[in-house]
Design goal:
single chain, mainly alpha, minor pseudopilin epsh fold, 3 strands, Helix Hairpins
């Protein structure tokens, strides 16, 4: 069964002005679609064909012969989480259980947001900033390119794409403004909390 690009869980203009319609059309419809198409082509006729996306990510990570498969599988996995982790009128209050865990592991919600922003800002070039659960604790991490927490045995709760195509049309080179808008106005905290549960 070939992988398919799932429709966005909201309209292309739903996240404006924080993420514009053109950004979503290009990022979802072109970039993400390309990862899905490439992945299907690369695994066709191999032992990975027919396996779950999680299994393909884990099986291809760290294997130079499968670098192309990993890059496209990783990006497909990352984007599936990314789209669900945002919503119209996002941001705002964090559900109680998740907020308590954030305060316990980071000291405060602000300290978490600062750590997450720093991870996104200091990821050189293309990559991702993450909130993960690892060994029973919440942590902020970052990964280059298509790499993700799944490849490192961590459970991802939230991921923010800091490849330039994710924000350049709306923010030009102002990655800090994009990360602020992501945390304050885009994150679907209920979805993040559901991944913790």
């Amino acid at each position: 069964m070939a992988f398919e690009l799932a429709p966005l869980p909201y309209a292309h203009d739903a996240l404006a002005p924080f993420m514009g319609e053109e950004t979503l059309q290009l990022h979802h419809g072109k970039h993400h679609q390309t990862y899905v198409t490439n992945l299907n082509n690369l695994i066709k006729g191999t032992a990975l064909e027919g396996q779950s996306l999680d299994a393909i990510v884990k099986a291809s990570y760290g294997d130079p012969a499968k670098a192309g498969i990993f890059n496209n599988a990783g990006q497909h996995w990352n984007h599936e989480l990314f789209w669900q982790a945002m919503k119209k009128n996002g941001g705002g209050a964090i559900p109680g259980g998740l907020e308590s865990r954030i305060k316990a592991d980071f000291g405060s919600v602000e300290a978490f947001k600062e750590a997450f922003t720093q991870a996104g800002l200091t990821q050189f070039g293309s990559g991702w900033a993450w909130l993960v659960e690892d060994g029973g604790k919440l942590k902020v991490t970052k990964t280059p390119n298509g790499e993700n927490p799944l490849a490192h045995g961590q459970h991802a709760l939230l991921g923010c794409d800091v490849w330039e195509h994710a924000y350049y049309l709306d923010y030009r080179n102002r990655r800090a403004d994009y990360l602020k808008a992501f945390l304050e106005s885009l994150v679907n905290w209920e979805f993040v909390a559901s991944r913790l549960a």
